[in-house]
Amino acid sequence: MPGPEPDGPRPRHHRLPPAIPAARWLRWALAGLWLLDAGLQLQPTMFGQAFASNVLYDAALMYQPPALEGFLYRSASIQSHHLVLLSATVAAVQVTIGLGLLWKPLRRQALILSIVWAALVWILGQGLGFMATGTAMIEFGAPGSAILYIVLALVVLRSRDEGVEGEASGLPTAQWAWSGFWALGALLQIPWRYSVGTVLAYNLQTAAQLQPSHLSGLDYTLARAAYTNSVPASLLLGSLEVLLAILVWLPVCRRWSIWLGLGLTAAFWVLGQAMGGMLAGVATDPGTGPPVALLGLYLLSATVQGGPQPNLEPARAGAGWAEGARPIRR
By three-state DSSP, how is residue 81 classified? Predict the structure, then answer.
């Protein structure tokens, strides 16, 4: 027969709090980006000609090929005649997407709507991310924030159950996206329309015009240095981007390479993208820096959550007993 229970409280097993699944917080963050975009769209400048000249016509006229320029110019002309209605509609759609991503019954529909809407924004509002201009570099916002919103939505859709097991389905999509982004950066270092020095200097000077004074001076200094040392600068950036595209596939190097990529992303966002132009009051989104950072953070989180899970149960022998068990007398 079992003996009497020992006096005093039984030892309790303290479990670690469960981690939030990576796909779930990524969906919340994506919702936050859409709501931020809606807030930026509701700035007073977005209901006047500043929106038309700084966004719509800028996407159409900044060194686009003639056929694409004509299409985008006609689209900008039509939109510029209805700026109040356009800005209100854009903000309403973005609020709908953001709130839909936060409400479980509508999250799948919101993800699909976000993909369709982001594709329209990328074409009509971002001029295909300026990829056809010969001036595009990931350091300065290529391939466009809207494309990265689509990538994040696809990662969340692939991780549809948002549990630990679901990360296995979203992780390859995120790895391919991360690797492809950095590989694209290396490819865009190859001059095919303008010299590398010209492209680097032009983009840094453009960013400087949207920066506060203490950062604009740094951008102008970097522009001069990049123009006179374009080959070493391009080789350094391209080499780093090739490494980041490859190392994400090597488990032993994945974590530190992602952290390196996040550091470069932050530097590019501040110096090359002027934080999306948000401080200048002409931004409709925060730029490519935040969505790229979210992709990298998802990779870090999903890699941990998708790996082997530790057994948190205490040892049965020699380490006490689980709650509710009784010792055995011999």
Answer: coil
Q: What pLDDT does 13 receive?
A: 47
Catalogue the long-range contacts made by 168-172 (C-beta closer than 8 Å, 24 or more residues apart): 168/306, 170/22, 170/23, 170/298, 170/302, 171/299, 171/302, 171/303, 171/306
Question: What residue spans define the domains of the chain?
Answer: 22-304
In the chain, DSSP finds a helix count (H) and a strand count (E) of 13, 0
Other C-beta atoms closer than 10 Å to the C-beta of 106 total 15
Q: Is 57 helix (H, G, I), strand (E, B) or coil?
A: helix
Report the pLDDT value the prediction gives residue 324, as an integer from 0 to 100.
45
- Across residues 134-142, what is the average pLDDT? 95
The model's pTM is 0.85
Please, what's the b/e burial string for 162-175 (b: 16 or more CB within 10 A of its CB; e: otherwise)? bebebbebbbebbb
If you search the block for the tokens 């981007």, which residue do you land on? 241
Closest CA relative to residue 27, chosen from 119, 113, 100: 100
Task: Tell me the two tokens of residue 291.
Answer: 């969505």
The residue type at 38: A
- Tokens standing for residue 89: 């509609």
pLDDT over 90 at 286, yes or no: yes
